[in-house]
Design a protein that fits this description.
About 25% of the residues lie in helices and about 30% in strands. It is built from 3 helices and 7 strands.
Length: about 180
């Protein structure tokens, strides 16, 4: 099992847009395994590479007993929106109502470079949008209305984990990605 420390709100890597994956190699497959293991252990329904300190466009998900991943995703969103509870492994213990598209079609690649399509509604759509936001340097609290965002920022500042330093991971197998911190 390759469970890694999850970067917390305030870590600059979470605000940095991730680079597209170019090499579909054993290092990418190791990253997908690390993401999956860490997400399942947390537990969570999604985890993006920047949350492990790796600036690459890849995320994993575990929704409705389906474990998967998407590399270099592009999204097509439904016009219908819904509000729902949303949390984040990088903001542990905090949940707020966030508006998201009800449906999503995500196109991208698997870890072997083969084209894939992930379609979903409700929780799957929310997860895919949330994780793709991470790849763009966006955190879900950025999408809250002004009142909710103010409450979220207050809760973040009061959280016991706020201001904790990023973990130092020596000899990270992802150091070769150039953005592992």
């Amino acid at each position: 099992m390759a469970v890694k420390p999850i970067r917390l709100f305030g870590d600059p890597v979470l605000r940095t847009p991730a680079d597209p994956v170019k090499d579909f190699d054993k290092e990418l497959r190791a990253l997908v395994k690390d993401l999956s293991d860490t997400m399942l252990e947390a537990p969570g329904v999604g985890l993006a590479a920047p949350q492990l300190g790796v600036g690459l466009r890849v995320f994993t998900y575990y929704v409705d007993d389906v474990l998967g991943h998407v590399v270099n995703p592009t999204l097509k969103l439904s016009d219908d929106e819904e509000e729902g509870d949303e949390g984040c492994l990088s903001l542990p213990g905090l949940v707020f109502q966030a508006k998201r598209a009800v449906g999503v079609v995500a196109k991208g690649f698997n870890m072997y470079g083969e084209p894939i399509v992930v379609e979903g509604t409700h929780l799957m759509a929310r997860c895919v949008q949330h994780e793709t936001d991470h790849l763009d340097g966006i955190i879900f609290v950025d999408r809250l209305d002004a009142e909710q965002r103010k409450a979220a920022m207050k809760a973040i500042r009061e959280a016991e984990w706020f201001g904790e330093p990023a973990p130092i991971v020596k000899d990270s197998p992802h150091a070769m990605f150039g953005k592992a911190l």
